[in-house]
Amino acid sequence: MDGLERRAGLSVPLAARREGLQTTQWPGRMEILGHSPYVVVDSAHNGDSASKLRTALQDFFPGHRVILIFGASADHPFADSLHELLPAAHHILVTRSRHPRAATPEMLSQTITALGYSSSIVPSVPEALDAALENAAANDLVCVTGSIFTVADAREAWCRRNGLPLPPLDPEV
Predict the structure, then answer these.
(1) Per-residue pLDDT tens over the stretch 68-91
(2) What's this model's pTM, rounded to 2 decimal places?
(3) Comparing C-alpha atoms, which of 53, 132, 146 is closest to residue 97?
(4) Is residue 81 part of a domain?
């Protein structure tokens, strides 16, 4: 008996588990939107998930210069996320999603300065994505993270930029 069976009382065949993992799609979690440069969105919003994101970026994109676009909810422990992500970033853009709970870029920038790094303030996620892509080399990695709201705005901006169908939008914004 394995953990799934013990905890949930379910018996799921190994083949079904493998198929489920291979076919799962989770928009906004380590999602690669583009190549050359790579554009990755991940809704890491706390220190633990940011640590896992940093490790994944190092494992899957070794040697790529990281341009970090960061926006967070004001009521989340974004300093913990920044503490994990800043050492991996070559350039940091702070921004604000359209969501009402979003932290101001100035607040994020002050935290980054207090942690010993510098950042550039960009008013909106679409503008931050444009700025990052304009300054990125083909082998760079643009990573958008900090909140699910920031990632949602980035996914929408990416779709608009590339003439793709828009993802479902948050009715709160």
Answers:
(1) 999 999 999 999 999 999 999 999
(2) 0.88
(3) 146
(4) yes
